[in-house]
Structures are given as C-alpha cells and as structure tokens.
Amino acid sequence: MWLRLILCVVSLLGNIGQAQESRDSGEVTGAMKRAATYYRERVASHGGYVYHYSLDLKRRWGEGEATLDQIWVQPPGTPTVGLAYIRAFRATGDGYYRDAVEEVANALIYGQLKSGGWSNCIDFDPRGERIAQYRHGGGGGKNNSSLDDGQSQTAIRFMIQADQVFEFQQAAIHASAITALDALLAAQFANGGFPQVWTGSVEGQAVVPANFPNYDYRTQGRIKNYWDMPTLNDNVCVHVAHALMEAHQVYGEARYLVALKKLGDFLILAQMPEPQPAWAQQYNHAMQPIWARRFEPPGISGHESQSIVELLIEIAAYVQDKKYLDPLPSAIAYLRRSTLPDGQIARYYELQTNRPLYMQREGETYSLTYDDKNLPAHYSWKTRSLVDKLQARLAAAQQDKSPATQPSFQNLTMKARRIVQELDSQGRWITTADGSRLVGQAKLAANEQYLSSAAFSENLTTLSDYLMASQRQD
C-alpha cells in the first residue's frame, strides 16, 4: 500500500514537473519571438545593428555615434546579433529567424571588403564618411580587412553558420564565407601568426622564436604600421582560432585544421624565454615585443597571456596533440609569481625586470610609470587573475578530461525565467547605465536606460539554449 502511494506521488510530481516545463517552454518561445520581432522590425537598419540605442531609437552608437546608414561588424554588432538569430532558428525551427539570418547575411555581404574581410563599420550611404572598398556594394576609401576585436572573425563565423542554415544553397552567402576564409588563410604569416589588418596576401617572414629586444623601448615610441605585424592584442588569435575551428567543423576541409595547427605553433614560438615565459601583445617580424598604440608599450601582457593559455588548451584538445600544452606549466607559474598584492594581474610587465608597468596621461601625451595611481580610465591596466582556473584546466587537459562547461538545466531554467520576466510589453530588454562609458565611447548618465545588442544577443541565445536543453530532457 505504502509503495503504491509513493509511486503515485512520484508520478504526480513528474506530471506536475512536465506541465511546468511545458509552460516554461511556451513562455520562452513567445518571449523570444516578441523580442526578435521588435529588434528585427524596429531596431535593425539595412538588416544590421550597432552596439547601443536610445529607447526612442533616435540615437545609435557603434564606435562613436552612428547614422541610420551605418551598422557595426565588430562585436557586439551585426554578426553577434545574427549568431543569436541562428541559435534561435536551431532551437525552434521557426522560419522567422531564418529570414532574419538572411537579412543579416545580406548586410554583411554588402559590406565585405575587396580584401575579403570586414572593417568595424559598414556605411550604406554612398557619400558616407565611413564608406570603404566593398566587394559588391561599391564605395571607395580604405580596403583594410581587420582582425581587431574579432571583427572579421565574428563575421566569418556568422557567414559559415548562415551557409549551413541554408544548406549551402544560397550562392551569395556561400561565396562570401569562402572568399573570407580564403583571404584569412592568405593573411597568415609563415610562422603561423596573423596581423591585425590585411589588404591582401602577406609577404614571407622568417620563422624565429620570441626574444628580448636590444633597443631602448622607452625612447622608441609607437611603431609605424604595427598592425601589419604579428599580434595577440585584443584576443586576435583566440577569435581566429574559433573561426578556423568553425570552418573545419562545417566544411571538413583539411586546410583549416592545418592553419589552426600553424597558429598553435606560432603561439609556442611567441612565448618569451625565461625569466618571463609568457606572451607580449605585439611583435615585430624578428619576434621581439614592440609598441603598438602610444599607450601600449612592449612588455609581457597579463591579460593576453591568460587568454593564450586557455587557447592553447583548446587547440591541444581540438587537434589532439599535447605538444600545445608544453609551454603552459612555466607560463602559469610565471603568472602566479607575477600576481599583484591585490590579487590582480597587470596588463603590462616590464621586459626582464618584470616590474608592473603603467601609463599616465596629460592631455594627449602618455608617459611610462611604475605607479598604478591616476591611471587613464579608457584602458584596462589590470585584470582578474585566472591562475587557479588555468591550473585546473591544464591538469584536466593533461589527463584527457573535458572540463564541465554546460550550466545545469536547473540553472538554465532559472536564468530563462528571469530573462522572460525582464522583457517589457514592447518586446525589449532594457539596460540601465551605471554612469561609466559604454563600449563605443557613449557616455550615459547613471540610471539612463538604453537598448543593448549585447544584452539582446545574450538573452536570445540563453533562451534558445534553454529550449534545446528542455528537448534533451524529454
């Protein structure tokens, strides 16, 4: 009798749980559609997006204030939103999202440069101040395909996935993806690294390991055309690696795997020797750390070094070769002993002395200092230490264990419910400013409200992930 009662209770609770899950899924699907409809039909311009919008949609910001004819490629702009639409289509099968994907693809195709990649902005005004040399959209000006801040890489990832969504039958989308990938591979240096910017195939360079410079870096100043040289700044290599992995997974061509391995080989070469076995932001072709912008001196970069440790773990797992783990024990040990008293890691450490290196600013003039007070606010001079996390990830990789990266279904459900509740009656997720300067240089007053493409994309992706997870639960 008691056993029968217990079984009945368990069955009842299971039915209640399924009913709740069904209601949640219905509410999530509805919220996604309302949000996507508002963003696609009210916010989009020429099928693309910028970073931030005033609530009345009269002001738009990318890198600076944008016109109605300008959309942004750099994340979290157009391809970031497009990737969220792709995720929503895969979660729901709703053709509305596929149509949105096509609009984003057409916008990016218009703004693809003759050099094969993208710059940070696409200007649809033939006389616009940001017009460039577009493959199909006419225009003039510059032809600089950029890897800075994931610009071309994120557009490439979107175009690859859009090609897959349309089962490789949309000729313009397929051609755009392959053209961009061809150009990316042609921009890879002989040592496996990449420049920040390219206009065509790069010239051959010597393949040598990183070494300390023998010049006086303090008096040298900014390097002219530093963007033509191997760079790790702003996670260029991380974004490139993810684009190559995406291309290899979707198209199955060996050339993308070869390029990825070559990139991993470059990162091994780029590790500086003792006593600082980590990575710089920027190198010359002799593989010596150099200046980039006037506030970016040669030095060991804590931020980029932590990112490279994570990336080499990813590459080692993807290509199934543990040689890419070999540089990491010494790099992690270096980062641990370089951690600041406050638990953070400096963006720059002076070459060989390893003293934390900063900048002070007077007007437009920057000067080197060891003092971390009164630092310019436009740049991150310190970063959170990830040393313990990196050590754990390396240990798992050495034992062929995959770290758990997926959130639990319970946590995903809680996040989905919160996101649905935060959607307003118009289908908007509204962000409230905290008074700090936004990406793109927009300065909003504290508590001023705006729309964020980053928030829209993240929320739509999370809700899509919830739907797919709930389907697996069934």
Structure commentary:
The protein has 474 residues and is α+β, with helices and mostly antiparallel strands. It is built from 13 helices and 13 strands. The strands form 5 sheets. It has a 5-stranded antiparallel sheet with strand order 3-2-1-13-12. It has a two-stranded antiparallel sheet with strand order 4-5. Strand 2 (60-62) and strand 3 (64-65) form a beta hairpin. Helix 2 runs antiparallel to helix 3 (95-111) and helix 2 runs parallel beside helix 4 (151-165).
Topology, please?
Layout: H1 2-43, E1 52-54, E2 60-62, E3 64-65, E4 70-72, H2 78-92, H3 95-111, E5 121-123, E6 145-146, H4 151-165, H5 171-186, E7 197-198, H6 217-220, H7 236-251, H8 254-270, H9 302-319, H10 328-337, E8 344-346, E9 358-362, E10 365-369, E11 382-384, H11 387-398, H12 409-422, E12 430-432, E13 449-452, H13 453-473
Helix pairs in contact: 1-12, 1-13, 2-3, 2-4, 2-13, 3-4, 4-5, 4-7, 7-8, 7-9, 8-9, 9-10, 9-11, 10-11, 12-13
Order of helices and strands: HEEEEHHEEHHEHHHHHEEEEHHEEH
The proportion of residues in beta strands is 5-15%
Largest sheet: 5 strands, antiparallel
**DSSP summary, beta strand count:** 13
What Rg is obtained from the alpha carbons, in whole angstroms? 24 Å
Broad structural category: alpha+beta
How far apart lie the N and C ends? Answer: 30 Å
The shape is globular
Q: How are the strands of the largest sheet arranged?
A: 3-2-1-13-12
Q: Identify low-pLDDT runs.
A: 5-17
The number of helical segments is: 13
